[in-house]
Design brief:
This protein is mainly α. The chain has 16 helices and no strands. Helices cover 74% and strands 0% of the residues. The chain is globular, with a radius of gyration of 21 Å.
Length: 432
């Protein structure tokens, strides 16, 4: 069955794999280059937030656009726009222009992901949806992780890495445009209002907002932090690779425990542990946060730092999927996708605010402000979680809902691939 899935959708998977590889390189490349160009933390944070503003706009714009001109044209247009955007960064090294470039990139990536996931939705059947989602997950996390290693292709000071991103984005077009299969009919997904989501689960909604603040910051300013701490380009890429892979791998065991125990306590424990390991990551580099006068001096050790930062990411990244799973505990399966769409909006709002806010903290406290920010936001989630435990009894087990590992970038069309949603993906054409 797996072979049949790959055979039927190889062009889509191949194009997406190349695209996500470029995406894994692009944001981190800009972070490293921003430090080399002496952009201040605030300018860099605002620039990185531009991506999520564009993503937010794109997520709302693209469904109507696809309905008018079709999947292939929109995919080609946005892939070309993303390819152009990175070249603008290479030519005009200016934080204001880069902010606009990141906006265009976010707009493009949102459009591409919506198209890819709706296409996969159309290709999947009720029997194959789980396997399709698994392949998509592996490609997403692998592409993002190995994309960071491409930082070593050439110095971020040169044009070559930017050209490489543009080249990869252009190559991603080829298998999609050459496919003989007809594009799917686009179905716009309904979404729950933010007010309704907060009413259903204050914890899941608040935690998802904070998760957006955390994960958007981690994937955009992580390279900025490491470069500011005098990591070599190789060391920066290793750091980013490890946190990405750790965040992906630990989703499964954490999700397993969340299906066995009260999901609120899994969220609380994960956030507290992430907060602790974020703080320990500072100490591992022999640094002492300016706001904490503990008189502790540790020998700098990057290997210990890699380990601690990886553990931190391993507890932090699953929060996106945990929040989705927790709110679904209160819902019937026909509302799962709408709730996921609404939580995606909340996550996006947090993603817009996160990098800018963290950059202010880093501007005041120095590079250590990055992990101080991470530690505090995780701590806030945990404290709020304990408060909610005292206000609400444990929800009764929902037989329709189990934890499903999902990438933070997934759209409602991708969420529909989760077998738990109960969305009918069958059609006579698919089953031929």
């Amino acid at each position: 069955m797996m072979y049949k899935i790959l055979k039927n959708s190889w062009a889509l998977f191949a194009g997406y794999a190349v695209l996500i590889l470029a995406h894994g390189l692009q944001g981190n490349l800009l972070g490293v280059r921003a430090v080399m160009e002496d952009f201040n933390f605030l300018a860099t944070g605002i620039m990185m937030s531009g991506y999520f503003v564009g993503y937010f706009v794109g997520a709302n714009l693209v469904p109507n656009l696809v309905g008018k001109v079709g999947h292939i044209r929109v995919f080609a247009a946005f892939a070309s726009l993303a390819s152009l955007s990175i070249l603008i960064h290479a030519i005009f090294v200016n934080p204001y222009i880069w902010t606009m470039g990141r906006f265009l990139t976010g707009l493009s990536i949102a459009g591409i992901l919506i198209i890819v996931e709706s296409w996969l939705n159309d290709r999947a059947t009720n029997r194959t949806r789980g396997k399709v989602l698994s392949i998509y997950m592996v490609i997403t996390f692998s592409g993002l992780a190995f994309g960071t290693l491409l930082l070593n292709f050439d110095s971020p000071k040169n044009y070559e890495p930017f050209i490489l991103v543009s080249l990869l984005l252009s190559i991603a077009l080829v298998p999609i445009l050459l496919t003989k299969r007809k594009p799917p009919k686009f179905k716009k997904t309904s979404e729950m209002k933010i007010k309704e989501l907060f009413k259903i689960s204050p914890l899941a909604s608040f935690s998802m907002f904070c998760t957006g603040m955390i994960q958007a910051t981690l994937v955009t300013l992580g390279a900025v932090y490491a470069t500011t701490m005098n990591f070599t380009v190789l060391e920066v890429s290793v750091f980013l690779f490890l946190i990405t892979m750790s965040g992906a791998i630990l989703q499964w065991p954490i999700g397993f425990f969340s299906d066995l125990f009260d999901r609120r306590w899994v969220i609380i424990i994960c956030t507290f542990l992430a907060s602790i390991f974020a703080f320990l990551s500072i100490l591992a580099l022999g640094q002492r946060p300016e706001i904490l006068y503990l008189g502790i001096t540790w020998q700098s050790d990057k290997l210990i730092f890699y380990a601690l930062a990886s553990i931190f990411a391993g507890f932090s990244f699953p929060l996106f999927s945990l929040n989705l799973a927790y709110i679904n505990d209160f819902l019937q399966r026909e509302k799962f996708v709408a709730a996921g769409a609404g939580l995606n909006i909340i996550f996006g709002i947090g993603g817009i605010l996160g990098p800018a806010l963290c950059s202010v903290v880093m501007l005041k406290l120095g590079a250590n402000g990055f992990f101080i920010y991470m530690s505090i936001i995780h701590l806030i989630i945990g404290v709020f979680g304990i408060f909610r435990v005292t206000r609400r009894q444990q929800v009764k087990e929902n037989p329709d809902n189990t934890f499903t590992p999902l990438p933070r970038s997934i759209t409602p069309a991708g969420i529909a691939l989760d077998p738990d949603t109960g969305v009918d993906l069958s059609s006579p054409e698919k089953n031929k």
